[in-house]
What we know:
151 residues, Rossmann fold, 6 helices, 6 strands, 18% strand, disordered N terminus, binds adenosine monophosphate
Amino acid sequence: MDFFKTARRKDSGYTVIIGCGRLGASLANAISDKEASVMMVDRDERAFRKLGTAYGGLTLAGDATDIAVLRSAEIERADTVVSVTNDDNTNIMVAQIARNVYHIPNVICRLYDPEREIVYKEFGIDTICPTVLSTREIDRLLGKSKEAKEA
Ligand code: AMP
């Protein structure tokens, strides 16, 4: 049964986002503004309040570590899955299911732990690590202000 589901053609432009925190909500709003199809999943229904009133996508309340919830979100027809809950293990688990079970072409997950980021990049899962991104940006800004002082 699942074989036929995973073998279905990907629905171009359908994005599933897991975790409706500030980052997830901002991303969902941006995708919805472009009139692309988006599904937001969060285990806490109150989190959907962060979505703007203009949000035109779908929402689903449920725990993303439950595969039945991912099926209800129709993960099998997504071409992009972004997992940005506040828990690295959840994000890794969702990313691996999306990649290995449903063969989603674009899988991105947030990892707070920079050491894990390196490992999962090797598994073909794109990761973003706020610590690494912030460090790079602070370093860049410090370099810029140093240059300005020396000029
Ligand atoms: P933030 O920490 O602001 O980025 O928010 C993270 C969001 O992820 C919160 O709204 C949580 O309710 C949500 N979240 C955490 N774990 C899960 C999970 N297992 N399934 C679905 N949503 C989750």
